[in-house]
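Running log. JK asked me to keep both predictions on one page so they can be read side by side. First protein, sequence followed by its tokens:
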Amino acid sequence: MKTRRTETGTETEAARPAAMAGKGTGRRWMAFLMGVMLMAAQYAAAQCTARNTAFLPGEQVSYDLMFNWKFIWIKVGDAVLTTDKAVYEGKDGYCFRLKSHTSKRADFFFKMRDTLTCYVTDRLEPLYFCKAAEEGKRHTKDENWFSYHDGQSHVKQRRTWYKPSDREPQEMEYSDSRCIFDMLSILGQARSWNPDDFKVGDKVHFPMATGRRVEQQTLIYRGVENVEAKDGNTYRCLVFSFVEYDKEGKETEVITFFISDDDNHLPIRLDMYLSFGSAKAFLNGVSGNRHPMTSIVAKKE
């Protein structure tokens, strides 16, 4: 592995390989936690197609969701990400599916039942994304349909409310010369990129479809750190910070991502800083991975 230098990096646009993240807010932190973590895997190119070198159909990755309460870390839920072969509207490709839920104990404070489903071509080009979310009292479905013409990436987005409501479905359309990704399609493409060219301090900016809008985001590369996961192993990880800026330009770190420094590029841990506490997601198991987990620096005894 190349030595990474500690220095002030440069700001880059999504035309350069870009790191991905999402935005978590308020009481919705739990559901967005996993979506954001999976978007943060590595770097994504501006073009909407790429060669998959990171995963195979049949891969399954599981996580423990933890919350800090009065200096005690408590498990509040689980999440599982699966990858399978699929055909969408006659196009061969992959289906990524992420299911996350809180435990019955945690449901007393905040109930979450989320299923994220994404279809991409065999060249990892986004086709369709759906997030069916029951979060507290809110029960919604966010959908994205992607298309490509006139040298632009296009996305049509719709939010639908499940429970009886006077609210009509919300729809919007957006186009960009850069590729537009959703929470899961970015993971599929990003995992195949080589991060060796990144320098500590480098910033990346990118557009992300959330289901109701397309938001511009910023991620900063921090370097390498060893991290212990819930499977008992310690992994060498690439570290990224998702940051937000206030009107005065003051930077606030929202999430820290720890990504396996090997050819799988799997999220190992995510730390989230909230107004009412701290949250973490820990890897607790993986099967069907394409490459050996060479980022393991210490195995459980």
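And the second, directly underneath as requested:
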Amino acid sequence: MGCGVADGAERDIAQAQQVQSVRRQAAQTWFLGIIAFAVVLFLLVQAKFILISLVIAIILFSLTVDAINWVAGVQFGRLRIPLSLAAIVAFSMIAAGLFVIAALVVSQANTVVMSVIVYADQVQRAVIDLAGIFGPEAQAAARGMLRQVEIAPWLRGAAGQAGQVVSATILITLFVGFLFAERIRFSTKLVNLFGDADRAARAERIVGSIIHRINRYLLVKTLVSVVTALLVWAVARFFGLELAGPLAILTFVLNYIPNVGSIAATVIGALIAFVQFGDPWFALGILGIITAIQFTVGQVIDPLLLGRALRLSSFGIIVSLAFWAAVWGVAGMFLAVPIMVAIMIVSSHIPALRPMAVILSREGLPDTDLDLAGRVSRKG
């Protein structure tokens, strides 16, 4: 009987030790995870210029993959365009487009800087008059605040940002070139990496799904942004706004930022109208017109073309915007949705990370391997 009690006590002690060991391992895992997250976050912040350029290069490269494969498959009698020639043409077009965009951004930045210098006094008077709506105290506070504002540091910062655009363009072009050079060996590298042709094919399907989703999102967003920018430019020209060109370009760029971008572009348009003419009712009219344009294009045309291609949680998009804005600034806000798409798709095919994919998806139903197989069969 004493032996039985002793054996039971030993079992209880062993079970207690096992529970403590499991808890200790769980605590170590959480601790290591926190350290790893902190290290990754530190690297994301410190190397943000290179990483942002790399992510943009990967997105541009992914946009051209399907087009290159289609061009290489076109036949003219017995002749077929070589894959290498199609890749060279695509790379040349991307490089030329990047430098044209960089030149356009720099020129419009110079226009904005010169306009700020010309309209500096007028802006101050407009802000003071606007603050006067809330009473003399608010007007005095606005006047005191504007006295402390220095335009020179802002202008130097704008010039520095323009210089960074040129540097980033060169770096992105180099990254895209190396990605084109490596694409031929991508499938072989996957097989050697996983050591299994089936697992490599599954990874390639996941990458293809990410590319497909991001490409459709960017193409639809580009079309919607172009239409919105043209309409805003037409409205600005019709009402005689001097910064119609920069406002249209700013609208085009900001529309890539979900939810927040269209609001910011609309408010900026109204502020430009108010500063130039000094009439709050005229500015409110411009605000209403641009709001109507943004709502019609963003809430009608955008969902009609995009459909269920993303299936992302609206709350997840806001959180992603906030996180990447804190890490990478404005550039992070532009890249937040593509990065979120990639994370959701990858997480949906890793059992340990599938809860994250469920949270990020709109209906809680992220892709599965069957979805990927069905998409591949439809393409075939």
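Observation for JK regarding the second prediction: Residues 22 and 28 are 10 Å apart (CA to CA).
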